[in-house]
Specification:
This protein is mainly alpha-helical. 66% of the residues lie in helices and 0% in strands. The protein contains seven helices and no strands. The two termini are 28 Å apart.
């Protein structure tokens, strides 16, 4: 598994970012914002909110730990070309990342294809995983 640092930390904290990385970060953030706006139009996606236990867990563990969990979940449950139990691999509760995945349509390969244009049948590459983790992080930051 590639470490979570290579997926998203550089987008937010790397002090040696080049101008290209800054442009990429801004472009990715705008892309995420555009998709989140579309997702907000879906009654199903809009109903997902962080509640009691998930919200408390996020506050207790802090964002860096939660994003490490997110990277592990994506790597193990969504990134394979043909994930086991695709469409049912992400629980609907008990972790803030699970809630964020459903809210952002990053919960399975079918949702990734429908909402994000990431086709099924290939292993997710680091750019696609980085995009998914950025989506989850922004949603979590907005919905703490």
């Amino acid at each position: 598994m590639i470490g979570v640092e290579s997926y998203w930390t550089g987008l937010y904290t790397n002090q040696s970012m080049t101008d290209f990385t800054e442009i990429t970060k801004d472009k990715r953030t705008q892309q995420v914002n555009d998709v989140l706006e579309r997702l907000n139009q879906s009654p199903f996606r809009r109903r997902f909110k962080l509640k009691g236990p998930e919200r408390d867990y996020l506050r207790k563990k802090k964002m860096n730990t939660i994003m490490k969990h997110a990277a592990e979940f994506i790597e193990n449950r969504v990134a394979p070309a043909n994930p086991s139990k695709d469409g049912k691999q992400t629980p609907m509760k008990n972790h803030p990342v699970f809630i964020a995945q459903h809210a952002t349509a990053t919960c399975c390969r079918g949702c990734l294809e429908k909402w994000h244009g990431i086709e099924r049948g290939h292993r997710l590459n680091s750019e696609e995983i980085g995009y998914i983790l950025t989506m989850i992080r922004i949603w979590l930051e907005r919905n703490r």
